[in-house]
Write a structure and sequence with these properties.
- By secondary structure, the protein is of the alpha/beta class.
- 24% of the residues lie in helices and 35% in strands.
- The chain has helices spanning 39-48, 99-115, 152-163, and strands at residues 2-15, 18-23, 26-32, 55-56, 62-64, 72-77, 119-122, 130-144.
- Strands 1, 2, 3, 6, 7 and 8 form a six-stranded mixed β-sheet that branches. A two-stranded antiparallel sheet has the order 4-5.
- Strand 4 (55-56) and strand 5 form a beta hairpin.
- The radius of gyration is 16 Å and the shape is globular.
Length: 165
């Protein structure tokens, strides 16, 4: 699983000109489910994300987590995070989980966030969505459950891209 995590002042999801989800201060999570992701990947994300200390305290230091500020969470499925752009100009999505598998893992993630007692809103799986947000900072992180260290895989990808330019 890959998650793009954005600290926001507010965010919303619109489907077919109807706002279906809205949060105030908190996190937007764009979640990509890869082939072979398991419940362990879900657990990794659910345990890690709400505990990330990325909110400033009263002195402006990033010491607080989502739970510390009673923040809200907006979960949005985004299979395009698994795009492979190594060849040609059209991305390939063969690394993304099939829709049934991805939907199951997305729902599992949503349910586990709710089980933590968090205030959670969600996009509509498989729908064309408009995601609007006010990124606070800006603060954006990438977390990859397969690496366990987050940006290590991204740094490797950036290094590979530098070699090809």
């Amino acid at each position: 699983m890959i998650a793009v995590i954005q600290r926001v002042r507010q965010a919303s999801v619109t489907v077919e000109n109807q706002v279906i989800a809205h949060i105030n201060r908190g996190l937007v999570i764009l979640l990509g489910v890869a082939q072979g992701d398991t419940g362990q990947d879900v657990t990794f994300m659910v345990e890690k994300i709400p505990r990330l200390r990325i909110f400033p305290d009263t002195q402006g230091k990033m010491t607080d987590a989502l739970q510390d500020i009673n923040g809200e969470l907006l979960l949005v499925s985004q299979f395009t995070l698994l795009a492979n752009t190594e060849k040609g100009r059209r991305p390939s999505f063969e690394l993304a989980a099939p829709p049934e598998e991805a939907h199951m893992r997305y729902q599992e993630t949503l349910e586990q966030f709710l089980a933590l007692g968090l205030s959670v809103q969600a996009g509509k799986f498989g729908a064309t969505m408009v995601v609007a947000l006010d990124n606070d900072g800006p603060m954006t992180l990438i977390l990859d459950s397969r690496v366990g260290k987050g940006v290590k895989k991204v740094k490797n990808l950036l290094h590979q891209a530098d070699r090809h330019t």
